[in-house]
Amino acid sequence: MVESDWDEEGDCHVTRPQSLNQPNFKQYNNDRHSPKKRQFTERTEYPRRDKISQDSDQITKTIDIDSSYVGRIIGKGGSRINELKFQTNTHISVIDRISENGLSSIVIKGEAKGIEEAVLRIKELTTEKQSYDRPQQFNRSSRNTNIKGTIDWNALHKNTEIRNQERFGNLVEIVKIFYHEPKHINNLTDEEVQKIREDKHKISVKDLSDQEQRNIPRPILSFEDIFEKYAEIMSSVTVAGFKEPSPIQCQAWPIIMSGYDLIGIAQTGTGKTLAFLLPALIHIDSQPTPRKERQGPTCLILSPTRELAQQIHQEVGKFNYKQIRSVCIYGGGSRREQINTVERGVEIVIATPGRLNDLISNNIISLTSVTYLVLDEADRMLDLGFEPEIRKVLLDIRPDRQTIMTSATWPPGVTRLIRSYMTYPMQINVGSLNLTACKNVTQKIEFIEYDDKLDRIKRFIDDMPNDCKVLIFVARKITADHLTSDLVLCNSCDGAIQCIHGNRFFNFIV
Predict the structure, then answer these.
(1) Long-range contacts of 385-389 (CB under 8 A, 24+ apart)
(2) Which of 430, 457, 488 is the last residue of a domain?
């Protein structure tokens, strides 16, 4: 057994033990657990003398690397590690275990020359820095053109309080309270309030503050109870045809407009978007700093997918309150167009985490003025692996903001975000915390032969009332294209049909 280290000039120095049958484990272990953490270490095993055969040139070398580089070495679908095996004529395997020091082991077997080449290539992969250069048409001297691929959390969290004080200490205090409880709501007894919550799909409300318990705002019964002073919003609600608030809206609006952080746990399709959007419009217009003097958007809404982001963006357009402007930022859209819209000035940014971090890192958008933050469908964002991007974004927003989080489930990652980035929130549950079907949807299943599907869809559409809409899901993009063409040729829905999938740029027909 030997141990080798990389010196400052990148050379590998090997110390061989006197006996090949007695590996020098002690020397390696002492170094490994020393106060100075290693990022790259090696150990080599030579064949025992009594085992020497025709494969005696084969040796085994074990490399310990920082576990954060394992994915880079393996590559997508194992492409990079397979390429290394082929080019160096060695067998390379990654041990699926992380040590207490955060190190992972890579075992290389083969001839000495091949192993040496494999080690050099792995070293390059664990020391290089990725550089993402902005397209030339967006190159501006005042902007950072290098974005590091790995987020250094220790550097970001260092001296956080001092950093926040320097960045946000001189900002104007946020106005969060816009709700005054109507008299008839204030007169409700606790039993009446509980009955209203039970009748509204079993709403439960909890105060998650570990401080002194606060009075939880009572649920409202109508739109007038909360938006009576906001004529433009009431007019838009009437035009949209809403009769009464949804279960989550009747409890969320009083809590949000009383200035509290909120966690809304409800299934998709329960009105969560308007639950955070309408208070956001009032919040934006009511801040003491004039809009023209703000350094960036006032409201940031993070969404897991571009489709959901576009849907929220359209909802903002339906409620044209005080000429508040919004932009939808997502990967796959026109980057130049998104940048131009941001630079013209917007009050609301609806974004997916990846593209938003891109624009922030290039100093295109500033989050200093954000006072109202929404994490929509936080559980889905965590499922898609956006937690590092979300945490990085939140570090750029003033800590005294108002934060709203919606989720359909309650995974551990959501709990971590709440503990780190929300201030004594209140939690609303509509129904069960377990993922269940929406009770407002009646599900019917029909077993149909493949060749009869198109005719059944046509009959279904023809039998629909004129004011109804239909959403059809298919398994493949090409199927969506073909089905759309067939329905258009049949003049179904008078041609008002839209095909939506990842290869199409589309606008919703509403």
Answers:
(1) 386/304, 386/352, 386/353, 386/354, 387/413, 387/416, 387/417, 388/151, 389/353, 389/354, 389/356, 389/357
(2) 430
DSSP 357-375: HHHHHTTS---TT--EEEE
Burial class (CB in 10 A: 0-12, 13-18, 19+), 355: buried
Q: Note the pLDDT of residue 443.
A: 85
| Residue 451 DSSP label | G
Condensed to tens digits (0 to 9), the pLDDT of residues 259-311 reads 999 999 987 778 899 999 999 999 999 999 999 899 899 999 999 999 999 99
Query: At 507, phi and psi to the nearest 5?
Result: -125, 135
Dist CA 458 CA 17 (whole Å): 80
Tokens of 334: 């026109």
The CATH number of whichever domain residue 104 belongs to comes to 3.30.1370.10
C-alpha distances in Å from residue 139, one per residue of 136, 144, 363, 430 = 5, 9, 11, 48
Q: What is the CA radius of gyration of the chain?
A: 29
Domain count, the chain: 3
214 Cβ contact list (under 8 Å, min separation 6): 207, 260
Name residues whose C-beta falls within 8 Å of residue 97's C-beta, 6 or more positions apart in sequence: 104, 105
State the residue range of the domain holding 209.
183-430
Ranges of the chain whose pLDDT falls below 50: 1-38, 48-55, 128-142, 145-146, 148, 508-510
